[in-house]
Write a structure and sequence with these properties.
alpha+beta, endopeptidase fold (from Nostoc punctiforme), 7-stranded mixed sheet, 9 helices, elongated, PH-like_dom_sf, PH domain-containing protein, PH_domain, Papain-like_cys_pep_sf
Length: 331
Amino acid sequence: MFHDDFGIEESDEELPPVITRNSRNSIISAAEKCGWLQKRSKKYHNSWRYRYFALIDNKLYYYKTPSEKIPLGVYNFDQLCFDIQAFPKVNPKIITLIPINSPHRLYLKSSNLSDLQNWASALCSSILQSKGKEHELSSNRTKSKFWKHEIIFSKDMPSIAETGDLLIFKAQTPNSLKSTYTYVSFLIKYPNQGLGVLHANTTEGVEIIMWEKFIETCKFVRTSNIILRKLRVERTDEMLLKLEEFVKKVDKKKYRLSPVELLQRNNDHNISNDLQVYSAELVASALKYLGLMSSEVPVNSLSPKDFSMESNLSLMGARLSGNSSVEFDVD
């Protein structure tokens, strides 16, 4: 170990391997810029650790390795205003990201000055065009360690979510620290009426419920961890007309099992397990109808987990963003 000009311990970690863009991680594959940087870590006594960074959609993700699908953290420039300090005289190989009204600092560096300059340019451009910078959004709205879990508040959903975005629900498994994916929904944004949820249930069948009613009446909403994954796609008039056709086809369509499926199930089978699969089938059918999913994918083979970041669902002409946690209260 040795000390840099800040008196911070330098890691003698080996250089990470060189990789190509051939990554199974959809965020990294589509990133505007990605690569290895060193990040200062308080966890390791302010030493520097290599992390793999990806800049996309005004968000800076970082991973332990590029093969991982779940990031260690994400800085969302649209939710928080950042300043950037690049190449201070005391150490010209460091970039510092500074969220306003927050003591937190993200220190990044690289031995490759040219690459670091490119990172500084890309980060500066992303920050300047972000909603956080435009509206000078403060960290007062965010939780501590906001970069560990990207958060969207429930009351902001109607203004943030767009048609085609997905809601994925996770519930804690009894007597286990593990959580399971229980449900997935397709969102529809109405210009004059707000945000609707294309919802499947065992009584009413398929229906569209407005967001406010959805979070009030669906019991599992408040007992689940809710994840928003935004659909990154060009929303053309043709696509929206196709969606309108799809909604008319499935509206009020009852959830039911065929006689063969019923015979295959045990008496103690939990009907909610079938509803989980049906919710995934409904979302997959919508994506197929819009031409965003291959016709070769059998929709009844998918589960809510297949729409999560843990899976690598392939879409055509579109992609799903990283996870944003939907929360109801601010601590």
